[in-house]
Amino acid sequence: MERRTIGAGALAVGAVGLGCMPMSWAYNGSRQRGDASLRAVHRALDLGSTLLDTADMYGPFTNELLLGRVLKERREDAFVSTKVGLLVGEQHIVANGRPGYVRRACDASLRRLQTDVIDLYQLHRADPEVPVEETWGAMAELVQAGKVRALGVCAVGARGGRRSGSRLYDPTLRQLQRMQQVFPVSAVQAELSVWSPEALDGLLPWCAARGVGFLAAMPLGNGFLTGTLTPGEGFEPDDLRARHPRFTAEMMAANQPIVAGLRRVARGHGEGVTAAQVALAWVLAQGGQVIALPGTKQERWAEENAAAAALRLTAQDLAEVSRLPAARGSWD
After folding, report:
1. Which of 144, 187, 225, 236 has a beta carbon 3.0–4.6 Å from 152's, enabling a disulfide?
2. Are 317 and 263 contacting, i.e. CB atoms less than 8 angstroms apart?
3. Residue 319 scores a pLDDT above 90
4. What is the pTM assigned to this prediction?
């Protein structure tokens, strides 16, 4: 698989990584199977999808424990990315960016992952009660202590800013400038897909200008862009899509032209190429510093996603994708 670099340290990873969250959090809880997930991770590593993306809050904790079982055997094959900064309560999630907590959380993640170093440690969310410089400084100390190799940030779009004419990620860009004064940002993770291209406006150019890696989260639109979801079929109560404004039966039906367009492009590349692979190839075509992080808990999808790294879209393909209608949600 093509390898791409993350940050000034030139940490090399496969162009398509593996988002591990669905294995124990947020999607179809009744279908989560530990053994199946382990096979998916092993297969992804076999195919060059070396970046394994997790977080301590997924589960919570069980996602890191699962990956630890793989890393115990194959640490040298993997690039491990985990996150800190969010605590899961009974019915809520809160941010915690206090330096003491960051240090304790890192040690706990290292134990669960069965490794002595985390390749990329990401700030999941900034704590509004703690200056981000303090949190980032504590994370930088972990690099200096040899527990972490590089630092990253998860960007959150401020949708309310749209109404005032500002760009979705303007608050994140201001935060990144502050963090850069403390310690280099090696990677930024944010949603990027055919139906959520907002990061192209400001955030991705910021990364490209500074040699910062861009980790494209949800590149398959939470599964919608694969074309495997049926409008009206419904989701389990604990599935995040059950409350997502683009996953009502009405909006899923309204957004089918996007999937149809991806399938048209796929047919132009021969039998066996899928809409999902076109969606991933589009993400990778947005810049050489972009790494796609499709999430899955099944071996067959890990194989299909990895194969997308070899798909090269033509200028005509990219133009056709650019003409697809914008995604609609129940807020529209």
Report:
1. 187
2. no
3. yes
4. 0.95
